[in-house]
Specification:
By secondary structure, this protein is α/β, with parallel strands linked by helices. It has twelve helices and eight strands.
């Protein structure tokens, strides 16, 4: 009898543990009218999504340069991190959507050939909010990312302050004007998106309109202040200069934000250890 009781308890514990696990659907496809198709994305659905009728907050989580919609799952272990945070109450139950941004920097290309940002705002977000049970309000919508994705999260968040409550940028790919003008190394990454020829003497207006270091000074200050910002960049990261410059500009302008500098380089180890706190920061609005 005692053995049967222990077996029953073990089974219940096993079922309970399973019920606390979210689900990842990888490399799904969305058809756009604006950009080259298909637009692939992966999605994390929180524990209980399939068995409930409730709607959930949503985080759009952007990958880095040369990765794709599978990066945050394969290398970032986003499902493990979300499951653990939800289980211990640090992270709000939420849907996490990971679109493939290719190497667009999540911007509209200067020549109009690849309007990725327009697609994301005008097509993809409405598609997600129709297909999944998402709370479609600013307070329940956040955007985050690493490296190129951190740049994209800041850029999109500052362009569309009416849409996102929170922006989280891990090792954001922020490059200063001086770095662009004085180095040829960045052309490989930014060329064909922001310009067709390396700037000489002064960066162009398109760069200024799509760079957080300029947006923080050009976008209406009250609109910027309506969004919460979280910056995190390693002390040995080659992007540290741009991130620290953004921090000081935001501080001087009175834009409240959190800025973290931890021991680390530009690596998945850093981003995996940074994501839990990023999602926790986002959840402060989702939880209330």
């Amino acid at each position: 009898m005692r053995k049967n009781l222990l077996l029953f308890v073990a089974i219940l514990c096993s079922v309970s543990s399973f019920a606390q696990t979210g689900k990842v659907l990888e490399s799904l496809e969305f058809t756009s009218k604006l950009v080259e198709n298909p637009v692939k994305y992966s999605i994390y659905l929180p524990p209980g999504y399939d068995s409930s009728q409730r709607s959930y907050p949503v985080v759009y989580l952007l990958h880095g340069y040369s990765d794709d919609e599978t990066g945050w799952v394969q290398f970032g272990e986003v499902d493990r991190i979300a499951d653990k945070g939800i289980a211990n109450g640090d992270i709000a139950q939420c849907i996490i959507v990971m679109p493939n941004g290719k190497v667009t920097w999540y911007c509209n290309s200067y020549d109009g050939s690849d309007p990725w940002e327009d697609m994301f705002i005008k097509e993809f977000i409405p598609y997600v909010e129709k297909k999944y049970r998402v709370r479609a309000k600013k307070e329940y919508r956040a955007i985050a990312g690493l490296s190129m994705g951190g740049f994209g999260a800041l850029n999109i968040g500052m362009h569309h302050t009416d849409m996102f409550s929170t922006v989280v940028a891990l090792s954001a790919g922020i490059v200063t004007d001086e770095q662009i003008l004085n180095s040829t190394g960045f052309d490989h990454y930014f060329g064909k998106i922001f310009y067709d020829k390396k700037p000489e003497g002064e960066v162009n207006d398109y760069w200024k309109a799509n760079n957080p270091l300029h947006l923080v000074e050009s976008v209406d200050i009250d609109k910027l202040k309506s969004v919460r910002y979280y910056l995190d960049c390693g002390d040995d990261d080659f992007l540290g200069r741009g991130n620290s410059e953004l921090h000081f500009k935001m501080k001087d302008l009175g834009i409240k934000h959190e800025y973290r500098v931890r021991d680390g380089i530009h690596s998945w180890v850093y981003w995996r250890t940074g994501l839990p706190n990023g999602l926790k920061y986002i959840s402060k609005v989702f939880h209330r």
